[in-house]
Amino acid sequence: YFYLWLDRRKTIGNKNFFSLMIEEVNGEYISGIVRGRVVKNQEVLICDQELDQQNEARPIVVAKVQVKDILVNQRSYPKGEDEQVTLVLQKEDNISLHPYQLIMSTCHTDYLTQEYINSLLKETVVHRLEHTFIYLLLSSFWHTKLYCLAYHGDNKDNNVLYDKVFIPEKNIYLKSIYTSYREALKNQDLLELYGLEVKQVSFQELLSQAKLEHMDMIVNPFSRNQFIIDTTYYESNLAKMKMAMSVMRQVNKEQK
């Protein structure tokens, strides 16, 4: 087997994309850690998850707004980059802001779900113990098409570990999946294998494959924002959290 590694000289990223998960709302001021760079007067998206008729959560754009001001330690700056900031957004009064919404760079509609998930993944280190955050992350995977590596070469006895990653600390193999084509290309040494290609597959199909192989999954293994999915309990945990979130939403509506 080949041992997969992260060569930072070959990583591919979108340096112009930023995201911020709202941690606190105080009137027109919203606070959180900006991941990437945001500048004053930039047009941004307010993103959230919406329940469809089947009570399934899907990422949506609440509104497209403009950044009026950026505050760092209560002082105004023309930009904020990889730090705790307070943003003032120019928005309509009927647009509601609340914690766990994402403020993101504008992107093409086709990439909204990918960027939404990638932005959530950047918050896992800080918010991984919060039930609301974990629910948003797990539910965002369910209806998503993710990426995996598939081998279609002539060597049927190929023994390259192209779709799994070895984790030395845990002495286990995990099935590797990716949130974007860009993430899958980060290990370019592996992609030099003839007959290997990046394939887009539904998350539910990938989950079924991992269960058949009796493996957990790792999302974006060559990224700083990795996330391991327990395939055995994913669906039952998601169902329990969905029920709890529905109750919380109903209570909030009644209180309003």
Count of strand segments: 14
- What order do the helices and strands follow? EEEEEEEEHHHEEEHHEHEEH
Classify the helix fraction into a percent range. Answer: 25-40%
* Radius of gyration over C-alpha positions, nearest whole angstrom: 20 Å
Largest sheet data: 6 strands, antiparallel, barrel
Spans with pLDDT under 50 lasting ≥5 residues? 1-13
Mean pLDDT: 83
General form: globular
Number of helices: 7
Task: Provide a short characterization of the protein structure.
With 256 residues, the protein is α+β, with helices and mostly antiparallel strands. It has helices at residues 112-121, 124-127, 131-142, 181-184, 188-191, 203-212, 234-255, and strands at 19-21, 24-26, 29-39, 43-51, 57-72, 75-77, 79-90, 102-105, 145-151, 164-167, 172-177, 196-202, 217-219, 227-229.
What can you see in these coordinates?
The protein is of the alpha+beta class. Helices cover 26% and strands 36% of the residues. It contains 7 helices and 14 strands. The protein has a 6-stranded antiparallel barrel with strand order 1-3-7-5-4-8. The protein has a 4-stranded mixed beta sheet with strand order 10-11-13-14, with helices on one face.
